[in-house]
Amino acid sequence: MDHSSLSHQPHKALDPVVLPSRWVVLDTETTGVIATRDQIVSIGAVAVSDAEIQPQDSFECVIRQPYNSSSVVVHGITQDESERRGTSESEALLAFSEYIKDACLVGHHVEFDVTILNHRMKHKTGRVVSNPFLDTMELVIAMEEAKWIDPRPSPNDFGLDALCRHFNVKRSGRHTAPGDAFITALIFIRLLSIAANREPDMVRRLIHPGIPPSEKDRVSKPGSNGQEEKKA
Amino acid sequence: MSLAESLFQRIADFLDDYPPFQYLGKEDLLRIARLVKIKFHERDETIFEENTPRRNLFYVIHNGSVRVFNRKGKKHQLRDIRVEGELLGIGHISGLPHYTQSAVAENDTILYSIPWEPFSQLLPAYPDVMRFLRANTSLHPESRSWGGAASEMLPGDPGADTLVGHINETTYLPQIVQKRFLACQTNDTLQEAAFKMLQNELEAIIVVDPDGTPKGMITKTDMTRCVQSGRLPRKALAKEFMSAPVITVGENPRLGDCMRLMLKSACRFLCMTKDGSAFTPATGVISERDLMLYYGNNPMVIIRQIGISDNFEELTHLRYRADMLMLNELRSVDAILWFSEVVHDLNCAFARRVIELAQADLRAEGYFPPDVHLCWMAAGAGGRKELFTRTAMDRGMVYKALSSAAESHAADYATRLAHTLSNGLLKCGWTPNTRQMTEANIQWNRSLSDWEAYFHQWINHTLDDELPSVLPWFDALPIAGNDYLVDSFQSVLVREIASHPAFIRRLASVTITSIPKPEEYEAFSTRENRLGERRFDISHSVLQPLSHLARLFALKEGIVKHTSTIDRLNKLAKTSAAHRALFEDAAEGFKIALFCSAKTGLREQSPGNLIEPATLTGIEQQSIKSTFRSIFELQNLAETLVS
To answer: A21-211: which CATH topology?
Structure first.
């Protein structure tokens, strides 16, 4: 395994007109909502390139857990199951780092996922990923303001379920990491395609540079009504 | 750590809901799912363009819908609207290197794309998949035809153009039928005409003017009649013995039109002319014999057999044969008008024969017809020519005694005839009419003056809650007997409505009440319906509301001669410039709904009220959905009549 790409280096500056050629839409299932304290239970991700979801370029892993946390009722992965299907945390994180390469990460409230990934990675491997990332929720809000998409009927509902309802995306597989990543990808290709046909630079402006864990000590994943997105 | 297997399983689960993927084994389905890529297309975005090279992949609609069409200059000829689970760009199976149609997202759409090569490698192991794909492309590459005709046509099966005996309103006569004909001049002698016929072994000769326009026709029957009369001077002229006028048709006529003309005119020969009128030169002759030879099993043959059938058992068999034939012929929405006329002709022939048999039975029992005119009529859906199966038709009888002596016997005879007739229909498999709206119910077997009094009463005094039960009679249509009796009370109808404008207000109110609530229409689009888990009542939700609305507006405009809903709506489109598009759309929608209902009814030998949306093509589903909008708009228009 080539770990050279895992070292924290400043990310190459984005081309002002060309969007990233590869996006990785990800979701993590975790033991709680505190990024600097909780553990990752599973990671699911699928790549988008050429404005298409590429299921052949996807990633899925379960991390072995020492005990059942209260979040098991949400994601359904028991300690037994994690022992049977899972892998060690460091191995999983390194493999994920290798999988994403230099893609731009995408997710719903993705800052939480990036922070917990980096926090755990720093803890286990001493390294972090510094890939740029894009939050689908921020993209939706910006596109609503630009009137490129219809406004959501409940503007204060920021949950993935609300977006699924709004964009008529079937919600099967919710609260599994690959399932949520796929659902988010279905929403993302819609947004990306609409934005690319109008003003791609808006998407580029919403891309965050990678954040080292030291800069974000405590990032909580927001929920739509304070409940829906909670991991535990 | 691996590829996200659960994603592939999720894609496979989606595909497994739809043909042809549902025919694949689990492993192969998963293999295909692993190859899928997923792309979003914004509304009106082009997916592929006609005449461009075909990509080495095809598409499945995951979400949304896609318009498939051909470009004709600046216009688009719509071929289909595909919805979730349907395929796009599958012409590889026919070896088409270019797209033959264009596809554009009808609304925001997500497509799965699947590479063709690996998929095609599975085909030899799955004949059902092969059949499905070929059926999808056999007649109309890229598009299923309306009514799913193509999906029923498989490679190796005789196609629509080659199947001898297959007919419909769009089948054209072969040239050989049209072109063989003989002509003689009006001043030629009968002997000369006979010589020509004998020499050419033809049954008829057209008698023409020097400029070739047809003036009459001499047939073998005319010759026989001439001989039988004993008047056969050697110098008799053709014009003295010809049958005239001739029934003319245009060049390259359609079989369906020829059959109907022959049935209507009771003429076994048609003369083809350049423009279809009797004022241009004759170009051919079409004989009933020719049609029979080419299209042995057709409604015309069955109708003739009905006319000579002498028992109910045989009539039952003939009607069953007609049902089967109709089911086979009802292949496209555009055929529905022709089809409803033919079914009406069949019903009339059937009714005439049953009445003749009933009269014969009565004579055998010693009851002879008094000096009376009598007409048997259909009401409701039967009167609108929208009843295609032997389900409970609303029927009645009207009679008029022609002399005071016959007056006292007329009612008695009509009642006896009605009972014998009702029993005959039941013997022939007609469903009993549980509402008792039949000729056997004395309430609906009345003299002309009684019927006129009925209409006066209904238009002037009937309470709104009683009105719906008598509305079928506002669609009355003669089936057998003296048609003028029905015409007579219809003219009363027009007069009464004109002099009582409040009736239209009441009728509008009753019509609006009969239209289902919008929620019932939403049921059509539910996933359960589309997957065939539930049925949709197309009669209650589409056919009845539109027929009620069409009746309301037609009566308001004094249109009573047109009883069929499509005729009424088309007539209204012509007379109402402001709402022309609305009436035209409603007529189109009604045609599709009637087609779906008729097909289901004939297939299941049921009234055809409950259809399975899952069995409809994309364009049929879309058209029925757009019909809901027509209903609501007509309802809004009806509300303006109430206030």
So the answer is: Nucleotidyltransferase; domain 5 (3.30.420)
